Amino acid sequence: MRDESVFKIDCKDVFLREFLISDLDKFHELTWQPEIHEYLPGWNVSKEQREDWFINYEIPENKQFLKALSKGEDIAELRLRLGIVLKETNELIGWCCTGIKDELPPPNREIMYAVSKDHRGKGYTTQAAKGLVKFLFENTNVELLNAIALLSNLPSNRVIEKCGFNFESIIEIDSESYNFYKINKRD
Asked: What CA dihedral angle connects 13, 60, 156 and 100, to 10 degrees?
């Protein structure tokens, strides 16, 4: 659904929306929360690096994804990175994204997410992930989605399971063990 040309997906208490330049500071702050970069190493980069990625890659690729979608084209390997925004306050509290995960066997489109330490345990991440899965299955040619979570990241594993993903196996990526899940559109 569109509102003032900003792409949004309604998810009950939160909504997903495309990143805006004005999100940069809050997004950078979130990536530096130890509770986030513990499970997403490499996301806590310098402000300059984050700004470069945000302006030159993340926001433009969102536009490419949405343009392909609006034209009924294949999203192919394009990524969609959406902020999780709390409806009550309009605050950016995390993100929920989809893209190709090269370390997974094809078809290797995954969803991934993170939420602020201040907003955990309230169901927001599950709402966001379910919203993105539903959107992808209803609006794209995606037939299968993947999700992974470190074995020790019990909350993330619970979110994945609540979203209807099925456990496939334990896989190794960069010497770390992950639970590997899949969900099919027909499910």
From this structure: 140
| pTM of the predicted structure, to 2 decimals | 0.94
Structure tokens at 138: 């209803």
* Measured distance CA(147)–CA(136) in Å, rounded: 14
- Residue numbers of the domain that contains 52: 2-144
Note whether residue 171 is domain-resident: no
In which residue are the tokens 């605050």 written?
A: 91
Q: What CATH code is carried by the domain that includes residue 62?
A: 3.40.630.30
Going from the C-alpha of 53 to that of each of 28, 66, 68, 80, 130, the distances in angstroms are 11, 18, 21, 14, 26
Using one digit for the tens of pLDDT, what is the confidence trace for 173-187? 999 999 999 999 998
How far is Cα 179 from Cα 165, in angstroms, rounded to an integer? 11
Residue 21, in any domain of the structure: yes
pLDDT tens sequence across 19-63? 999 999 999 999 999 888 888 877 889 999 999 999 999 999 999
